[in-house]
Every structure is written in C-alpha cells, then in structure tokens.
Target: Cytochrome P450
Amino acid sequence: MNISSTILLILLSYLAYLLIYRLFLHPLAKVPGRKLAASTSWHEFYYDCVKGNGGQHAFKIQEMHKRYGPVVRINPREVHIDGRVDPAFWDILYSNSNKLDKDSFYYDGFGAGYSAVSTGPADLHRARRGAMANYFSMTNIRRYEPMVLQQISKLFQRLKTCKANDEVVDLGNAYRCLATDVVTSFALPEPKTMLDYPDFGKDFNRLIRDFAKLITFQRHLKIVFPLLSAIPDWLTVRMDSTGASLQMVDFQRSYEKQTQLAIDRKGKLPEGQPISILDTLATSTELKDRDKLRNRIVEEARNTVGAGTETTASTLSVLTYHLLSNPACLVKLKSELNDTAVASSNQLLDFRTLERLPYLNAVISEALRLTNPVTGRLPRINPRAPTSYTTPSGITYTFPPGTVMSMSMPDLHFNSSIFPDPHAFKPERWLEGTWEQKARMQQFFVPFGKGSRACLGMESARMELLLTAGNLFRRFEMELFETTARDVSWAHDFFAPFAPFDSAGLRVTML
Ligand code: HEM
Model:
C-alpha cells in the first residue's frame, strides 16, 4: 500500500470512528434529533451559510423541534430547548444565579473574542462587563438625552426636506443612520454622522447586512475576518465600485484611531465633551492591564456600536410598518401623544414625558416582541458540573460538563400560550387582560435577554425608541410606499433578523 492510500485509510477510519462515537457512544447520543446534525457540524454550516442565501439554521431548529420534541441535538455538542413548548426553562438557563460560560464556537463568529458580549468564561466576562456597567446605568444614560434629541432633530430635518421635494424616504436605512449616530455619540470620542449621507447610506447599510452574513461563515471557518482584513485598499476599491467597502474599512480603522486617542488623553477631555465608553475603558481602574490593551478596547467599542445599531433600527422599522398598516393603532397613539401637554408643538417631547405614556410603551413592547432584535440562539455552557433538562412530559436528560445548551428569543415571543395570535400586532395585549395574563407576558418577554449576560444598553435603547417613536408619530404623517410585511419579515438569522435579500426595506412618503 502506498503512502497516500495509507493516509486515506487512516482518515476514513478516523471519520468512521467519529461517526460511530457521535451517534452511539457520545453522552448526547440519546437526545432526539436528526442523525446528520448529530454526526457533523457541517449540517449547521449548510443551513447557516449555504441554503437559501444563509441564515436558515434557526428555522431548521424550529422544524426539528416540531418533529423531535422540546429538546433536540442540533449539532454534535449542543442541545436546544424549545421555548414554544417549555418557556419556563429560559429562567433557569439564563438566571442570574446560573453564571454559565458562553459558547466560544458560536460567539467567535463576531471575530471579537475580547469584547464582553463574546467573552466565553463567566469570570472574565464579569470584569469586562463591570467596567461598563456604571456607564450604562439609567442615571448616566439620561445625561445623553440631549444628544439623542439632537440626532432625532437632524432626522426630522431630513424628513421635512424629503417632504418638500416629494421624495420617497428610505426610512429603514434612515433608522440605521440614526441608530449609528446615536450609539457612536456616546461610545466614541468622535461620533459618526451617517444622517448626513444623502441616500441614508444605502450602499453602506447593504454592506453591513452582507457583513452580518459573514458572521456565520466566520463562526465555522475562523479565517474569514482575518482574510478580509488582509485585503489591500486598492483591491477593496476595485471590488466595490460604490465605495461602500472602503467606507466600511475607514469606519473600522477609525475605531483604532479613536481608541488610541482615548488612551493618549487619559480622561483629559476637551471642555464640555462628554466622556465616551472608549474613554471609560481606557481609564478604568477596575480592568486589569491586559484588558486595557488597545486591541481589546477596539473590539469592545466595535461590538458595542454593532450591538446598538441593527437592534434599535430593526425595531423602529417593524414598529413603523405595523403602525402605518394598522390605522386604528396609529389613531390611538397620535391621540395619546397629542394630549400630552408641552409648551410648544415645535418642542420635542422628552423622555420623562414619554416614558409615562401607556399606549406608546405598549406599542414599543409589541414592536420588540415582533422584531426579536436578536434572533440568534444564545448558547451557554457549564464547564464545571453536569446539567440536566426535564421535558414537560417528565423525561429527564443529564448532560456532562461542557455540553452546550441554548434557547432562542423568538420561540418565547411567538409562543401562542403566552401571546395569543402571536404574529399579530396588538399593542392592546399589554394593557388589557387580567393581572395574571400581563404578569405571564412580562415574565416571558425577553428582548434584552436575562441574567448576567443581559443587554447592557437596555436603558439607552429604551430611551432612543421612546424619543424617536414618540416624537416622530406626533409630528409627521406618512404612508407606506411599496412596502409589505415581507419587507420587515425575518427571513435570515445572522444573530439579528434580516428581511429577504431582494427587499428594498421600509419606505414611506411624507404627507
Ligand atoms: C432594541 C435594542 C436592543 C436589544 C433588543 C438588545 C438585545 C441584547 C441581547 C439579547 C443581548 C444579549 C446577547 C447574548 O446573550 O449573547 C445584548 C447584549 C448587549 N447589548 Fe444590547 N440590545 C439592544 C440595544 C443595545 C444598545 C443600544 C446597546 C449599546 C448602546 C447595546 C449594548 C449591548 C452590550 C454591550 C451587550 C453585551 C452585554 C454583556 O455581554 O454583558 N444593546 N443586547
């Protein structure tokens, strides 16, 4: 036998062993599910990256649950629990006392393992999150309200111009610009000004969506982002004549420049300039020196901006679509907003006023529920002790330390036993019904996650959503332009939900 035949034989024997081990001897061998998914992670790769333009694995998981029950083995090392059947397990898996690690395989897809959101080990995460926690507290975030209102005024000026020129407004992308400018105005020393882009950054925002698609490739192949960052600028220019790719490269590089600026100025800011997250991290006394290195802070900033952009923008798009297609809801909201006393109708309503409006709050909750701004499953690991899961019908599975367990937010939000007629937009559900029904909805309403890994930017997101939606619908009359439910639907899961690739997004005309 020659050398290549020997190598081939060894390889085939190894693969045969791996297959037999995973299917029959592995501790998860008895967990229901597709044999192909249990045999190889290429099954997940296919649904993540190839089928239907990618981002289809989340739907495959739902299909597997329908066939195999509330717990399924979705890849050789991970089990997924169905929140449509057993929503109560969410509180156990993501409870505050249950400080589990995150699964690095999955979160490495962001290519930013040093950021809090992607950090695997719970202990390391605690320190990294702790350094930002005060910054994101309600009291601190409230100080940034004038900056948020300033960006909203800028958006409103653009909308007025569009109205005067009879232009169709690409509102989905306008919201992305707004969200980017808002989050960078407190994350970075030098905020972005995307609301100045004449076309609301259409090409740039398309590129961000394509970039999100790469998360799934990076997750499986680990070399995608390193390869991309090695592409020289001249080639980037040739590959994309719109210039959006180069803009994206500049955008990424600006994190490095701004981090260096924050490190160099050591908290000595120009008069009147508010402290940014970058400055907070660069001058933190809580972080160990290794966590104050430039590359780590760059990743933290990049991920925080990423976390605060598509999430709020997609929620605003879904909210706008449903209000404009449900006139009765729009009338109720406008009447609540118009009844709100302010000195002048030109003055923007502030957070204190808007947070007290029940119908507006119900509209925002309903939009968050229907959007599911994080559609990706949230995988956790207990590396130290075995974990177990008992199905509602009483079958108990025990998993060894290191087993990955996950659930997905949309399963809870589309659970018809908690939210009847779950795909309908009904802000009234948050206001009507018995106390028990409302308490149950609140318990399983988890757009910002739960526990020690829950969203840090929740208060800033709430403020941005209330200020934008409250003021926009008080001031402007609009109607949908060639936009249907499909344009705000969840067709791809790239951790965030994305509409079909051929969708032109949410567009409106100003009346
Ligand atoms: C509608 C808006 C938003 C939603 C629904 C949302 C949702 C979430 C969820 C579900 C997580 C946990 C992800 C996981 O377990 O892997 C998360 C984490 C995070 N989010 Fe948000 N987010 C929103 C807006 C924002 C904004 C505006 C910011 C920043 C300004 C932000 C910053 C963060 C950060 C830093 C984390 C990581 C926290 C940690 O790991 O300790 N988010 N977000």
